[in-house]
Protein backbone atom coordinates (compact mmCIF):
# COMPACT_ATOMS: atom_id res chain seq x y z
CA UNK A 1 0.00 0.00 0.00
CA UNK A 2 2.95 2.32 0.61
CA UNK A 3 4.81 1.29 -2.54
CA UNK A 4 7.60 -0.44 -0.62
CA UNK A 5 9.28 -3.60 -1.88
CA UNK A 6 11.24 -6.29 -0.08
CA UNK A 7 14.00 -8.52 -1.41
CA UNK A 8 15.50 -11.51 0.37
CA UNK A 9 19.27 -11.68 -0.06
CA UNK A 10 21.28 -14.83 0.56
CA UNK A 11 24.57 -13.88 -1.05
CA UNK A 12 26.05 -11.27 1.25
CA UNK A 13 29.25 -10.86 3.24
CA UNK A 14 28.27 -12.21 6.66
CA UNK A 15 31.35 -10.80 8.40
CA UNK A 16 30.86 -7.33 6.95
CA UNK A 17 27.12 -7.41 7.70
CA UNK A 18 27.80 -8.46 11.30
CA UNK A 19 30.24 -5.57 11.74
CA UNK A 20 28.08 -2.97 10.01
CA UNK A 21 24.94 -3.96 11.94
CA UNK A 22 26.80 -4.56 15.22
CA UNK A 23 25.31 -8.03 15.64
CA UNK A 24 26.51 -9.81 18.80
CA UNK A 25 28.47 -13.08 18.39
CA UNK A 26 25.66 -15.15 19.95
CA UNK A 27 23.37 -14.33 17.00
CA UNK A 28 23.69 -15.78 13.52
CA UNK A 29 22.54 -14.08 10.34
CA UNK A 30 20.54 -16.52 8.24
CA UNK A 31 19.07 -14.10 5.72
CA UNK A 32 18.92 -10.41 4.95
CA UNK A 33 15.76 -8.75 3.71
CA UNK A 34 15.97 -5.30 2.22
CA UNK A 35 13.09 -2.85 2.37
CA UNK A 36 12.75 0.21 0.18
CA UNK A 37 11.10 1.94 -2.72
CA UNK A 38 11.74 0.44 -6.14
CA UNK A 39 13.95 2.32 -8.56
CA UNK A 40 13.50 2.73 -12.28
CA UNK A 41 13.69 -0.69 -13.99
CA UNK A 42 15.39 0.89 -17.00
CA UNK A 43 18.53 1.26 -14.84
CA UNK A 44 18.81 -2.54 -14.64
CA UNK A 45 20.55 -4.73 -17.21
CA UNK A 46 18.07 -6.05 -19.78
CA UNK A 47 18.19 -9.62 -18.43
CA UNK A 48 17.16 -8.40 -14.97
CA UNK A 49 14.44 -6.10 -16.29
CA UNK A 50 12.55 -9.14 -17.58
CA UNK A 51 12.54 -10.64 -14.07
CA UNK A 52 11.02 -7.57 -12.43
CA UNK A 53 7.35 -8.51 -12.70
CA UNK A 54 4.85 -8.57 -9.83
CA UNK A 55 4.01 -11.97 -8.41
CA UNK A 56 0.60 -12.98 -7.16
CA UNK A 57 0.55 -13.09 -3.40
CA UNK A 58 -1.95 -14.15 -0.81
CA UNK A 59 -3.55 -11.31 1.09
CA UNK A 60 -2.19 -10.51 4.56
CA UNK A 61 -5.39 -11.67 6.25
CA UNK A 62 -4.63 -15.16 4.90
CA UNK A 63 -1.10 -15.14 6.35
CA UNK A 64 -1.04 -13.01 9.49
CA UNK A 65 -2.88 -13.83 12.69
CA UNK A 66 -2.60 -13.27 16.40
CA UNK A 67 -2.23 -16.24 18.71
CA UNK A 68 -0.37 -17.59 21.72
CA UNK A 69 2.35 -20.19 21.20
CA UNK A 70 1.36 -23.35 23.04
CA UNK A 71 4.59 -25.31 22.43
Please explain how this structure is put together:
- The termini are far apart.
- This protein has a two-stranded antiparallel sheet with strand order 1-2.
- It has a domain at 1-38.
- The chain is an alpha+beta fold and 71 residues long.
- The chain has 3 helices and 2 strands, in the order βαβαα.
Mean pLDDT: 85
Instruction: Give the % helix.
Output: 10-25%
Note the total helix count.
3
What is the ordering of alpha helices and beta strands? EHEHH
Taken from the alpha-carbon principal axes, the silhouette is flat
Largest sheet data: 2 strands, antiparallel
Rg value? 17 Å
User: Which range does the strand content fall in?
Assistant: 5-15%
Number of strands: 2
Strand order of the largest sheet: 1-2
Q: How far apart are the first and last residues' alpha carbons, in Å?
A: 34 Å
**Poorly predicted sequence stretches spanning 5 or more consecutive residues:** none
Return the structural class: alpha+beta
Précis, in short:
By secondary structure, this protein is of the alpha+beta class. The chain is 23% helix and 14% strand. The chain has a domain at 1-38.
Structural features:
single chain, 71 residues, alpha+beta, two-stranded antiparallel ribbon, 2 strands, 23% helix
Topology summary:
Layout: E1 5-9, H1 14-21, E2 32-36, H2 46-49, H3 60-63
Antiparallel strand pairs: 1-2
Amino acid sequence: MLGLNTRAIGGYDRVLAREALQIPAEYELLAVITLGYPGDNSALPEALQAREVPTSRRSLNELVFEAVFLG
